[in-house]
Write a structure and sequence with these properties.
Radius of gyration: 17 Å
Largest sheet: 7 strands, mixed
Structural class: mainly beta
Number of helices: 2
Helix content: under 10%
Low-confidence stretches: none
Mean pLDDT: 93
Number of strands: 15
Strand content: 35-45%
Oligomer: single chain
Length: 207
């Protein structure tokens, strides 16, 4: 671990209770003029409506790559001084085929992760160079490696290698070339006291 840098991990939350509705609003990300890749400079969504299909007391859930937590867990994250996100309230609606009363389900907060995204060495594609425009990696699709973009198991993990030059002390953050999110040990210390199932958590390495 680099000096004065916290232990970090990749996180894939696979806990699911429903999907985002069409009323959710995705934020347009700027694109590099040279390589045309989307630059992760804005939050992913500005409005979130979740069509709930089921609920079994989970304190965190994910849909469309968004991490949402109960108000109770959000309050604990704030009390612990967790940095790196803006809170957006999630509107709850029942999935049209589900027999569920959403008023019995706790309020959820979308943890809208803030920039900057942290640079990493890609593990889910083939590296082909660096873009002169955005200074990010140029990658070529690799079918076998693409399974690693959102991992489903912690068996035989590849530890993501992460550059520290753009890290500004956040406890939750995006990576420039990886689908999972990054979290610190401080973040994990808060969630361990809550019902946070189906989290694929793998140590990452500063380089």
């Amino acid at each position: 671990m680099e000096q004065n840098k916290p232990q970090i991990y990749t996180l894939n939350c696979r806990s699911w209770i429903g999907t985002l509705s069409k009323k959710s609003v995705r934020v347009q990300q700027p694109k590099c003029e040279k390589c045309n890749r989307q630059l992760k400079e804005e939050i992913k969504f500005s409005k979130v409506e979740l069509e709930i299909d089921k609920y079994n007391g989970e304190d965190w859930v994910s849909s469309s790559g968004l991490l949402m937590v109960t108000k109770k867990l959000y309050d604990a994250l704030m009390q612990a001084g967790i940095k790196g996100f803006a809170p957006l309230k999630v509107k709850k609606v029942p999935f049209k085929y589900a027999d569920i009363d959403v008023t019995t389900i706790p309020d959820f907060v979308y943890l809208a992760i803030l920039s900057p995204a942290i640079r990493n060495i890609p593990i889910a594609s083939d590296y082909t160079g660096t873009c002169e425009g955005c200074n990010l990696t140029l990658n070529k699709y690799n079918e076998e490696k693409s399974q690693l973009i959102m991992r489903k198991t912690t068996e035989n993990p590849i530890h993501l290698q992460v550059f520290s030059d753009r890290y500004e002390g956040a406890d939750i953050f995006e990576f420039t070339d990886h689908g999972e999110i990054g979290v610190t040990q401080k973040f994990l210390d808060v969630i361990k006291d809550f019902n946070c199932p189906e989290g694929i958590i793998i140590p990452a390495e500063w380089i």
